[in-house]
Amino acid sequence: MENKKIMVCDDDQGILDVLQMLLESEGYTVITEINSTNLIKEIINNPPDLILLDLWMPIMSGDQVLKAIRINERISHLPVIVLSASVDGDHIAITAGADGFVPKPFDLDELLIKIDNLLLPEKVN
Prior knowledge:
Elements: E1 5-9, H1 13-25, E2 29-33, H2 39-45, E3 50-54, H3 62-71, E4 80-84, H4 89-96, E5 100-103, H5 108-119
Parallel strand pairs: 1-2, 1-3, 3-4, 4-5
């Protein structure tokens, strides 16, 4: 089986580094993007199998990015998990079209289970 590709967008380099190490140790190919305004172009140029998206980022927020993904026919089908420390982040994420939500600080096992459920539905967790 070919490695599944996950694109992670967060404005915190530390979170990008931790998620990249974690996901690569699980066998995923990881692409990180710190600038939310570049994300749509990156997704189109190098389509991932799943996107992890921070909700609160400067210039273009995660829910704005997610809405742009959902209206673009080329990429609207991609599963997106939103990460956020916001108390109402789950509501914002689902309203914007997210396939899942994980609160920050996130539990790594919970995050991996949500990723596996979207990418590897045949895998029993």
